[in-house]
Amino acid sequence: MRGHRWVDPADEHAIKAMQKKVPESVSAHFDLIEKKLFKGPYVMGDRYTICDPYLFTLSQWLEADGVDMARIPRVREFRERTRKRPSVKRALDEETRKPSAA
């Protein structure tokens, strides 16, 4: 969904090649996070750090990128738990709120 950042959007062949590769490459990176980098219950361990909102944001795109969430249960659980934080709920509500007509 973000291929236009790296190639001319009119280059359909390049866009299709990237779309085909994304599930594999993103899955590989999240496998690494799941198995080696994620300490739990937060990214760095017991304390919520600046890493957590970043991982949360990236994890919001996983299904659209074709990642099998069953492969990364710790990240999936982290994402669901993070969504329940009051500050995250407010931010997501604000993000999805339609702007009022001025």
3D structure, described in words:
The structure is a single chain. The protein is mainly alpha-helical. It is built from four helices and no strands. Helix 2 crosses helix 3. It is flat and about 45 Å long. It starts with 11 loop residues before the first helix and ends in a 6-residue tail after the last helix. The mean pLDDT is 91.
Compose a concise summary of this entry:
By secondary structure, the chain is mainly alpha-helical.
Topology readout:
Layout: H1 12-37, H2 51-59, H3 73-83, H4 86-96
Helix pairs in contact: 2-3
What summary fits the major beta sheet? none
Report the helical percentage.
Answer: 55-70%
Distance separating the two termini:
31 Å
- Count of distinct strands: 0
The overall pLDDT average reads: 91
Structural class by secondary-structure content:
mainly alpha
Radius of gyration of CA atoms, rounded to a whole number: 16 Å
The residue ranges in which pLDDT falls below 50 over 5 or more consecutive positions are: none
Q: What is the N-to-C order of secondary-structure elements (H for helix, E for strand)?
A: HHHH
For this structure, the quaternary state is single chain
Shape annotation: flat
Summed up, the helix count is: 4
Beta-strand content bin: under 5%
